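Retro notes, structure queue

What went well: the backlog is down to a handful. What didn't: a couple of records were mislabeled last round, so from now on we paste the full input next to the output in the thread. Example, using Putative membrane protein from Nonomuraea dietziae:
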Amino acid sequence: MFDEIMGLPAHPLIIHFAVVLTPLLVAASIAYALVPRFQPYLAWAVVLLSLAAPAAVFAARQSGAALKQARFAEVEGELGQSIASHESFATPLLLSTIGLGVASLSMVYLWRAKLRVPAWVLSAVSVALAVVAGYYVFRAGDSGARAVWGL
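Corresponding output:
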């Protein structure tokens, strides 16, 4: 399922969703948590991104595993190390994005329900998870670009 799209390897196509949606979720969650006057404008964006970003990261992770299995299973040396380094960021990115999505959805719910103390706690958790997800999306993207382009 995650192997090809119209004859092209799926991973280079799918990763763009993850690399765009995850930073958008990070930014929207932080803005929602820290700037209450923006909350009415950002609520639906945070909800939609909380669902879409983890799905995009999951698809990118699965398509990357399929690409490695199909074309790079036997690769060794410097390229093999680059691929392994890139692959090592997939699971932490997925887990942090799922955590951020759950925390952000809960944060929106609690703010809208006017439960201030739990909302502030979840806001702090969301900001922390946003920093972690932002770190891992950067590292995954950077290591992937270095593996492909030799930067």
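Agreed that this is the format going forward. Reviewer comment attached to the example: The beta strands are 4-5, 8-9.
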